[in-house]
Amino acid sequence: MVAKSVEGIQAVEDVVNRLRGALAALGVVLPSLRVDPLTAASEEPYPLVELGRCNVDTAQRLVAVLSEVRR
What we know:
By secondary structure, the chain is mainly α. It has helices spanning about 5-25, 35-40, 55-70, and strands spanning about 35, 50.
């Protein structure tokens, strides 16, 4: 269980930052990628990661990267 503490939120932010870096290394940028502020502040034990919105070009790049990894 992730504690609702500064350390817990920092751990989730670390995951988001690592995901952002991994995607960027593959040429994919999700501008709205972040820790969902509502779930981070709620009573739920696990904050959600908001992948956010992206344009069609970014969605196509993500499909291409995922397809390549799957091969």
